[in-house]
Structure formats: structure tokens, C-alpha cells
Amino acid sequence: MHIYLRQEITRSRMSTQSGAAPMEKKSINSPDEVRTFDKGKLELTTFTNGITIGRITLEPGWSWEKCVKPIVKTNSCEAPHTLRDYAKER
User: Phi and psi dihedrals of 17, rounded to 5?
Assistant: First the structure.
């Protein structure tokens, strides 16, 4: 799967004659960072404008309480995010 992201840049930095901001293409199959934890992993791909896309894989029996809370020491996930379950769309 590839993610395309249009970067927000100032008009003086635009490199195309059409005036559109350049596109950046990255594959989430080659993440910039992988974080593993008990019964799961989080793969992160970061674009040059700072936006990060993540893909999480969780195994049966996973729970925040058992698998992540001991590492991050918070009662729930504190990262801002929007979720989309692509597995259900197949």
C-alpha cells in the first residue's frame, strides 16, 4: 500500500508550473520506525511535512492494560489519531 500526501508549502517554494504543491509518495510496507510490544507492533511512516501515518497489528488477547500500559505508564493512548480498519474492507 502506498500513501500519497500533498505537502503544504508557500507559493515561493512551489516547483510546478501548475501551482500545485508537490506530492510525496512513501510505502507503509517500508516504515521509518517499528515499535513492538507484547502481542502487537506499530509501524510508522513519517512524511517530510511532519505528518505520520501508522499501521498497527494486534494479536488475539491484546489489551492496553496488559500489553502497552506497563511500557508507557498511562491509562489509555494519549496520541491524537484517526482510525480506519482496512482489514474489514477487504
Answer: -70, -25
Give the total residue count for the chain: 90
Provide the residue type at 62 as one letter.
W
Residue 67 is part of which domain span? 27-89
Note if the pTM is more than 0.70: no
Measured CA distances, 47 to 8, 12, 70, 86 (Å): 12, 21, 29, 21
Residue 41 is placed in which grid cell?
507492533
pLDDT digits (tens, 9 = 90+) for 1-15: 445 444 443 333 444
Cα–Cα distance measured from residue 70 to residue 90, given in angstroms and rounded to the nearest whole number: 33
Number of domains in the chain: 1
CB 56 within 8 A of CB 40: yes
Q: CB count, 10 Å around CB of 10?
A: 7
